[in-house]
Design brief:
alpha+beta, 5-stranded antiparallel beta sheet, 4-stranded antiparallel beta sheet, about 45% helix, about 20% strand
Length: about 210
C-alpha cells in the first residue's frame, strides 16, 4: 500500500489500497476524494460501491467484525479514523452507515445500468465534475477534468464497459485535449479538492438530523 499515515489521518494516491477484506481496523471517514469498495476473490475485483467525501467505510468495525470488502483510492483521497468505543457513540454512526448504504446502492445501480454515456455522466456527477464538464470548452477545463479521472480501465471496470467505449464517451463529453502544456495537474488537483468537498458539505447537512458524529 502506497499511502501516508499521520496520527489517525490517511492519504492515498489513486489506485492505492486502503485496506483489504479480512483485515481489522477502525471505521474511516472519507474527507476528500473518492474510494472504491470491492469484493475480491483472488485476482478478481468486483466493484460493489463508491464512497464519497463525508461517507464512512469499514463500518463492520462498529460490530466488532473484520472488513468484508477491500477499499482502494479511486482518486487521490484523504481519510480520517473515526474512534468509537462507547455504544452511545456507535449508534449515530450506525444510523449514518444505514442511510448512506441506501443512497450508495442507488448510485451503484445507476453506474451499472443504462447506456455507457449515462453511466459515465452519473460518475462525473458523483465526483462533483458536472459543472466542470459543462464548462470544459473554456480555459482548458477539459484537460483538468481528464487529469482528475482515474485510468480508463478503472473507470471501465466501475461502469461495466469496455475501455474503448469509455474513451469514446469521454470524447463525446469533453473537447479534445489541449496541445499547450500548462499547469494542468495543479488545476486537476483543485477540481478534486473542491468538488468532493462540496458534496461533503451537502452530506453533513443531510446527516446532521440523525446525529452523525465526526
Amino acid at each position: 500500500m502506497t499511502s501516508s499515515v499521520s496520527g489517525v489521518a490517511l492519504a492515498c494516491a489513486s489506485n492505492q489500497s486502503i485496506f483489504l477484506s479480512g483485515e481489522s481496523g477502525p471505521v474511516w471517514r472519507v474527507v476528500e476524494g473518492v474510494v472504491r469498495l470491492d469484493h475480491t476473490s483472488g485476482p478478481i475485483r468486483q466493484p460493489v460501491q463508491l464512497a464519497l467525501a463525508g461517507d464512512l467505510i469499514g463500518t463492520e468495525a462498529l460490530c466488532g467484525q473484520a472488513y468484508q470488502l477491500s477499499a482502494s483510492a479511486f482518486t487521490n483521497c484523504r481519510l480520517e479514523a473515526v474512534r468509537s468505543h462507547a455504544e452511545a457513540t456507535s449508534e449515530p454512526l450506525l444510523r449514518q452507515a444505514l442511510l448512506q448504504q441506501l443512497v450508495r446502492c442507488q448510485d451503484m445501480a445507476q453506474l451499472r445500468t443504462g447506456s455507457v454515456l449515462q453511466r459515465v455522466t452519473h460518475l462525473l456527477g458523483l465526483m462533483g465534475l458536472t459543472r466542470a464538464v459543462q464548462e470544459s470548452g473554456r480555459h482548458g477545463q477539459a484537460d483538468a477534468v481528464r487529469e482528475v479521472l482515474p485510468r480508463l480501465r478503472e473507470v471501465a471496470l466501475l461502469v461495466d464497459a469496455k475501455t474503448e467505449t469509455v474513451c469514446r464517451v469521454l470524447a463525446q463529453l469533453l473537447p479534445p485535449r489541449s496541445r499547450k502544456s500548462g499547469p494542468v495537474r495543479a488545476a486537476g488537483r483543485d477540481l478534486l479538492a473542491i468538488a468532493p468537498g462540496q458534496r461533503f458539505g451537502e452530506w453533513a447537512a443531510n446527516a446532521s438530523p440523525v446525529g452523525c458524529a465526526a
